[in-house]
Amino acid sequence: MSGLTIAQKIIKAHLVEGEMVKGSPIGLRIDQTLTQDATGTMAYLEFEAMGIPRVKTELSVAYIDHNTLQNGFMNADDHLYIRTCAKKYGLYFSRPGNGICHQVHLERFGVPGKTLIGSDSHTPTGGGLGMLAFGAGGLDVAVAMGGGAYHITMPEMVRVNLTGKLNDWVSAKDVILEVLRRLSVKGGVGRIIEYGGEGVKTLTVPERGTITNMGAELGASTSVFPSDENTRLFLAAQGREDQYVELKADDDAVYDLVIDIDLSTLVPAAACPHSPDNVKAISEIGAIKVDQVCIGSCTNSSYVDLMKVAHILKGKTVHDNVSLSIAPGSKQVYNMLAESGALSWMIDAGARILESACGPCIGMGQSPQSAGVSLRTFNRNFLGRSGTKDAQVYLVSPETAAISALTGVLTDPRTIGAMPEISMPVKFMINDNMVIKPASVEDAADVEVVRGPNIKPFPESRPVSDNIDCECILKVGDNITTDHIMPAGAKILPYRSNIPYLSNFCFEVCDEEFPSRAKEKNGGIIIGGENYGQGSSREHAALVPLYLGVKAVIAKSFARIHAANLVNAGILPLTFANAEDYDSISLGDKLKLSDLRNCIKEGREITLNANGKDIKLVSSLSDRDRDIILAGGLLEFTKL
Ligand code: MIC
Ligand code: SF4
Questions:
Q1: 239, 265, 291 — which closes off a domain?
Q2: Hey, whose CA ends up nearest to atom 1 of ligand 1?
Q3: How many CA atoms lie within 13 A of 326 on its CB side?
């Protein structure tokens, strides 16, 4: 037998169901979970619906980082609900202000070799520390908190072999942009991306975190780095050296695909509008005029990232035409910037300093001007995500962002002069006073869970019917993101626990008429292209269509987390056996699915009758998925 990859080793140690055979369903024991507040309210409502008194994981953390504008009572209601749930059900609670979940988890909680699932698609950031970390829907996280396994399809293994060393002004962001350029936003689907080779030694844990974070944009199941001397140094600097374990792939590990990247050949790059894989060298794009620069997010807001930015800004002034905002990734980073004086350099240069939270990344403020060009150190530049539909968002490194903020045009940082020498500190400032501990088992009974008026009950799902006779109520193209299906942003994010209200905005970016049409037609079927549902883990992109009566989504292919969320909500994800059949269906066509329950039960082929023509469909549901769909969703299934 051949050796194992890092991911296979962690999977092997956590396998509770199935076999490690590529493409077959497996169940994993989950050591840690995380939630954030935009998906957390729903996850805790679901956890409560399961009736389990206390989480059964080694560690579960509830973060507040997305909805921090608190424009009205809604966000604050959610925060209080999550805080009291955490106290009662045995979770640590990271208070608003403590930072972005993935950055804080890397700093304070992540442990090499452990499994982690989080109700946020960028949970694979933990792979920078050698964790096997997956983004998942809230229901899957609720099940894991209750001690249940996490079910995925055993992925293919891809090795990205890094050699050489990054040149000055080229950064970790440019590495993952290169992987995205080569593999595209669908290139990681069904795969785990594992980094190896001599070049790995030149990257610190936060740099590795930038790379694994944006593995989400590849559609990958997750990404992972070895746990090595740099991991030990990072954990030691966080006062957690005792949690270090070495982790590496066997020399004879077998990969399905190997990609070679010589770090010394990379150049500063940007992902151009409106997709993270639309990557070009800065020199190729040219000196376009910039209106806004936003630095932060779970991708690029570590201490070293922001110290570099501070050094670039020191003694200078942000260009007259540019608005620069900076959001440090965590309280630790913020505090260290303040202590060192670097925060003062940023303020002095004219940066607008935001709190440690997701902020502009999820459209919570700082929307650009009409048709504005915005450079962002974030991970997603989907159409409309910034809150301005015609904005042109480019994803860049912190170095490129900071220098361009000064020049007012997109600028290749290599043209500026010597790079500031900043290295990872030997000791980070450690103070976990913004993390509230759970109540003891004895005291938990006395903790009251507070449900303000923004906390609405979980929407009801329904078992799939035998015959579906309806219309095509929407037809969309390739790479539809969950930001298209269920947009976020300051106006609607506060209503994440109010599905009826959210439904008014479903598919707003593609077709404003969709919600009213869906209601008028009493639901129906959505037709999608390739990679339907890429991006975020928000289960609202399934729960809201469920509320609007969507019975099935038929697409050329699906993104992993969204397909799981559809099944969990009791909506059938089906694919065309022949992709060209997609072309023969139009909006308003009559669609029929017959003898559906039996077909699902027996794993038989499903035939769609579209305007009288028979079209073959494939359902790549596992046995467990079938049972969930037949039961009417995961919550109903867990009650069986
Ligand atoms: C995102 O980056 O799109 C989000 C907001 O963090 C989402 C989660 C959500 O929609 O609440 C994600 O990535 O999963
Ligand atoms: Fe927050 Fe943006 Fe990261 Fe999502 S991608 S967790 S919104 S910082």
A1: 265
A2: 536
A3: 32
Q: Which of 105, 123, 295, 297 to mutate to test the pocket of ligand 2 (most atoms within 8 A of CB)?
A: 297
Look up tokens 């990969």; give the residue. 255
Q: Note down the domain range covering 208.
A: 6-265
Tell me how far the alpha carbon of residue 456 lies from the centroid of ligand 2, in angstroms.
Answer: 24
In a domain, 634, yes or no: yes
- Residue 538, ligand 1, Cβ within 6 A: yes
Please write the tens of the pLDDT for every residue from 253-279: 999 999 999 999 999 999 999 999 999
pLDDT digit string, tens, across residues 124-172: 999 999 999 999 999 999 999 999 999 999 999 999 999 999 999 999 9
CB 310 within 8 A of CB 432: no
Quick one: which ligand is closest to 362's CA? 2
**Spatial contact of 406 and 381, defined as CB atoms under 8 Å apart:** no
- The one-letter amino acid at 401: A
- Decide: 121 in ligand 2 pocket, CB within 6 A: no
Pairing of strands 323-326, 352-353: parallel
Domains held by the chain: number: 3
Do residues 499 and 365 share a domain? Answer: no
Domain membership flag for residue 429: no
Q: For 296-398, where are the E strands, in sequence order?
A: 323-326, 352-353, 373-376, 392-395
CA dihedral (236, 63, 540, 455) in degrees, to 10, reads 170
- CA-CA distance, 295 to 100, in Å (whole number)? 13
CB 120 near ligand 2, within 6 Å: yes
Give, to the nearest 10 degrees, the angle between helix 331-340 and helix 303-313. 40
Task: Classify residue 441: in a domain, yes or no.
Answer: no
**Predicted confidence (pLDDT) per residue in 527-542, tens digit:** 999 999 999 999 999 9
Q: Are residues 98 and 208 in the same domain?
A: yes
Mutational pocket test of ligand 1: of 362, 378, 385, the residue with most ligand atoms within 8 Å of the beta carbon: 362
- Taking the alpha carbons at both ends of the chain, their separation in whole angstroms is 40
Same-domain pairing of 253 and 276? no
**Among 309, 332, 334, residue whose Cα is nearest residue 405:** 309
